Amino acid sequence: MASILNNLKKVHAAVVAQRITSDESPIGAALNRAAVAAVTGGIQSDAWKSYMAVFAANRDQLERLTVEKPGEEPYLKQMRAYIVSNAICDVGTNAFTNNKVTKVIDGLEGVAGNPSVSGEVSDPDGTVAGLRPADLKVIPDVTI
């Protein structure tokens, strides 16, 4: 399953792996550029959608990261903001999952303001992947 949280961890691991052999991470730098565009464009912008598509494995996850809904839990807004602001504050994204974004980003059973989203990797027509910035289309898997 490719939950939003696991997608964040995958990106974080890829950045950290690049920084093992270099002070710079091309993925971290690309995330930084995309995050700045997202923040300056706002949550309803194409730049926000493009940035968040990096962490989405399907349309439901992308919607969770890009669409504010009436009655949703306030912490969802906070987590979205953190996902973007972290890549601006720390190009190395060393704290993506440092207790700021937790498994509740993927939803909680029985919580109307935060229903669960599928972790299934399902983007058959490439809609989600096609939204990602060019230098973030593919994040390599990291084996430790």
How does the overall form come out from the CA principal axes? globular
Q: Would you tell me the structural class of the helices and strands? A: mainly alpha
Computed over alpha carbons, the radius of gyration is: 14 Å
Question: Sheet bearing the most strands, described?
Answer: none
Indicate the mean pLDDT: 87
How far the N terminus sits from the C terminus, by CA atoms, comes to 19 Å
Number of strands: 0
Order of SSEs:
HHHHHH
Query: What are the low-pLDDT stretches, counting only 5+ consecutive residues below 50?
Result: none
- Beta-strand percent range: under 5%
Describe the structure.
The protein has helices at residues 4-21, 26-41, 46-53, 59-66, 74-89, 127-131. With 144 residues, it is an all-alpha fold. The protein has one domain. It is globular. The relative contact order is 0.22. The mean pLDDT is 87.
Annotation keywords:
144 residues, 0% strand, globular
Element layout with pairings:
Blueprint: H1 4-21, H2 26-41, H3 46-53, H4 59-66, H5 74-89, H6 127-131
Care to give the gist of this entry?
By secondary structure, the chain is mainly alpha-helical.
